[in-house]
Amino acid sequence: MVKIERAPGLGGVKSCALAPSKSGSTQNMAANIKVVVRVRPLNQRELDMNTRVVVDVVDEKMLVFDPKEEMRPFFYQGVQQPNKNFLKRANKELKFVFDNVCGQNATNNDVFETTTKDILSSLMEGYNCSVFVYGATGAGKTFTMIGNAENPGITYLTMEHLFYTINSYEKEREFDIGVSYIEVYNENVYDLLKPSSTPLQLREDSKYGVMVAGLTLNSIKTARELLNMLENGNKNRTQHPTDANAESSRSHAVFQVYVKMRYKTSSQLRIVKLSMIDLAGSERASATGCVGDRFKEGANINRSLLSLGNCINKLADGSSYIPYRDSKLTRLLKDSLGGNCKTVMIANVSPASTSYEDTYNTLKYAARANKIQLSIKKNIVEGDVRLSQYVKINQELMKKVKELEAKLSLSSVKVVSREPDMAKEKAKQEWRKRISAEEEVYSGLESKLLSLMSRQRVLALRQRLRTRAFTHVADLAHRSSTEAMEQMCNEEIPRQERAAENYMKQSVNLDSKVLTAWTKWDECKKKLHVICQQALSDCPELSDFVDKVHLNCELRQIRARDNLRQKLLSIENDEIEAFTEYMSDMPSMLKKLYLTLKGYDKAPPALTAEYLEIMKKAKSAKGITWSDDGNEGDAHFKFVSTLDLKKPSTTLEYGFSKKEDVNATVDVITDSDDLTDLENKEPIKLSAKKRKGTPIKLLNNETIIINDSFESMDTTRNLNSAKKIKREYDFAADVENYGIIDPKDLNSTFVMTGKVESMKKPLKTEFKMELNPVKKGLTDRTNTMPRTINFGDKAKVVKPVVGKALPFRRPPLQQNPPQRNFGFGSSVPRDAQAQRNVQAVRARDRFQSHPYSRPPPISRK
Ligand SMILES: Nc1ncnc2c1ncn2[C@@H]1O[C@H](COP(=O)(O)OP(=O)(O)OP(=O)(O)O)[C@@H](O)[C@H]1O
């Protein structure tokens, strides 16, 4: 439902008395209606019939209807006879004066200049404005309103100028433009942009004025969009051929533009409306030769035109009662006629004698509308008094022109004749058309490119947030329980891997689309630039037009950037809200845990200190100050928040394809600082040593989770131990052979132990060091011993445990029945001693893995 809000403080008739008038007319209500008459050229049919021209345009304000014809001298017996043709009807010779008269050669642009161009400033000041075209069928109403591709009508020209005007106001106001296009046919209202056989209902509201229930407002950004819209709308308009016009419109078409403007400083909101109405033909029923349904159509048309005329008359008389309710048309235009509305009426007439009656009626109707400011007597000038005045003025002016011409020729300034002016005007028109057509293509390509680039950035941000969330979950899983880790490996990691793969696919796809779109856009941009340069060198006067094209382009880009930022902000905001909620629960839980421990006297001073530190941070979180330039160095942030059209950026350039960003599980493990000491000279990420509980992908594509802090390990010793193990034992056997190593050979801080049930599953025999050089290299260079714990073949858990393993021995290999090596995590039952050892290790682990009670390393014997 369309709601029409009255511009504040401008509702009454009184306020319109202050309406500024650009036409220079009086400032009262009467000044609101401006009447312009347009005389169309004779059409081919009329030319073929050699019809007499009955409208003579004297100048830009005056026309003579049915002028006197020059009589050919009639001689009888060599004597000229007085011109008397008693059979011929006397010529009316009526002189009409209007605000403007556009002759047969006037273009739509000329009509625009004299009609709607001026009223746009009133629209910007907060007044509703309306333009009517009135006239008989075939008089040129639709041509004036809509025009054609070569000669766009005043609707297009007005909208073009409106966008231009809006640009000049944009520093101080924000604008929103919506348009609707409806027709009133047989006293029913239909939406031309969303055709339906069910008529729309008119509603009146004391607050919002006239509303059309169910009417959709279409938002437009350029005047070009409007052309397509009007073209589509006109296809839906009711037309029937009449005797006078093969494409006669049998309905009143009402095009309305709602301009919502908000003042940036005061936040004051104004909604104004510009109505442009192409009325149905005002011809007599006999002129159309219509009977039956067509006759009824004509009767309805006449009824609404009559009530429109009545309303205009009553408004002119200052009557308190205006019969708006007499027809649908007047009801619809209630707030576009009186009140704070500035109205222009364009009366279209044909000059042919075949349309004599219709032209006469139209001129009378127009004169009656003009009566609003002048009495009809003054308007229809009697006798030759006014004409003689005109002739006198004309003679004086001609004299002045001659004097000026003489002066000009004396100062050897070339007087530019009217002919070249016309040629220049035509050339300008041509350039405008070419530039507009190219700009339309360009703006289409640009919108597509900007939308793709925005999608690219939104995708990148979402992936970053997803990865961050995953790291967080992995960290939590590590800290909570082995089951959580198991679930992590079985579900979260594969899901994350799938998401990362998906992201890669999508971003590569988007990147290539962006590249293609950018190439096309860039080509088109160069082409447009060349055309603009050529146009400027040919007609420098077009600089304003070219500037406007550039400004439009900048505007589009700014809007796209703005939309993107809003979208990114809303995504980030959701994330922050979720995180804040989660964080607000943490301190209370932490407090409970700490107090429980303290209750059992299990809270050592270090823990207490850390707890107090965390609580202090939690409390001061409220007072966080935000740094404006915190993200300056972040390439990701820059990429996501900028839409730079200079070159098409891809996600790859900004490192999203780097493994840690795309998928935190993909990595090469190392825990040694001594990089030179490594046999495997893979590039190593120092940051990796900081990870705890992070899933890590090995070179052979296995995923493991490090279940403790790397920082806590004595890496040099670990490495040496690992090397020592390599020297002393043959690794041709299953990796489980680690189990038979004398624990004394392992360093004091790092022993593998198996706690999870799944560790007891049979080990994969194919995991041989010889067959897997990568893993071999890995075990050589790192003290992180990979356990072959298999969670659905997807990931494995490595559990470095602080402390030293208690010694235990495996039974000999040649035992009968043949058995695999026993060890931690083996599925083979252990003997009693081994069981006891395992329990002892577990008990020790439970105690020693607590970071606040780490015992000194057990010295080797
Ligand atoms: N100023 C003009 N210059 C050139 N051609 C014109 C002009 N005005 C009208 N025409 C032509 O005259 C024909 C009839 O014009 P148009 O359809 O605009 O009339 P109309 O008043 O809208 O008629 P109806 O009320 O029946 O719809 C069209 O072919 C149009 O192109």
TrEMBL record:
<dbReference type="GO" id="GO:0003777">
    <property type="term" value="F:microtubule motor activity"/>
</dbReference>
<dbReference type="GO" id="GO:0005524">
    <property type="term" value="F:ATP binding"/>
</dbReference>
<keyword id="KW-0547">Nucleotide-binding</keyword>
<feature type="compositionally biased region" description="Low complexity">
    <location>
        <begin position="830"/>
        <end position="841"/>
    </location>
</feature>
<dbReference type="Pfam" id="PF00225">
    <property type="entry name" value="Kinesin"/>
</dbReference>
<feature type="coiled-coil region">
    <location>
        <begin position="387"/>
        <end position="448"/>
    </location>
</feature>
<keyword id="KW-0505">Motor protein</keyword>
<feature type="domain" description="Kinesin motor">
    <location>
        <begin position="32"/>
        <end position="372"/>
    </location>
</feature>
<dbReference type="InterPro" id="IPR036961">
    <property type="entry name" value="Kinesin_motor_dom_sf"/>
</dbReference>
<protein>
    <submittedName>
        <fullName>Kinesin-like protein KIF18A isoform X3</fullName>
    </submittedName>
</protein>
<dbReference type="InterPro" id="IPR027640">
    <property type="entry name" value="Kinesin-like_fam"/>
</dbReference>
<comment type="similarity">
    <text>Belongs to the TRAFAC class myosin-kinesin ATPase superfamily. Kinesin family. KIN-8 subfamily.</text>
</comment>
<feature type="compositionally biased region" description="Low complexity">
    <location>
        <begin position="807"/>
        <end position="822"/>
    </location>
</feature>
<keyword id="KW-0206">Cytoskeleton</keyword>
<keyword id="KW-0493">Microtubule</keyword>
<keyword id="KW-0067">ATP-binding</keyword>
<dbReference type="GO" id="GO:0007018">
    <property type="term" value="P:microtubule-based movement"/>
</dbReference>
<keyword id="KW-0963">Cytoplasm</keyword>
<feature type="region of interest" description="Disordered">
    <location>
        <begin position="807"/>
        <end position="861"/>
    </location>
</feature>
<dbReference type="GO" id="GO:0005874">
    <property type="term" value="C:microtubule"/>
</dbReference>
<keyword id="KW-0175">Coiled coil</keyword>
<dbReference type="GO" id="GO:0008017">
    <property type="term" value="F:microtubule binding"/>
</dbReference>
<dbReference type="InterPro" id="IPR027417">
    <property type="entry name" value="P-loop_NTPase"/>
</dbReference>
<feature type="binding site">
    <location>
        <begin position="135"/>
        <end position="142"/>
    </location>
    <ligand>
        <name>ATP</name>
    </ligand>
</feature>
<dbReference type="InterPro" id="IPR001752">
    <property type="entry name" value="Kinesin_motor_dom"/>
</dbReference>
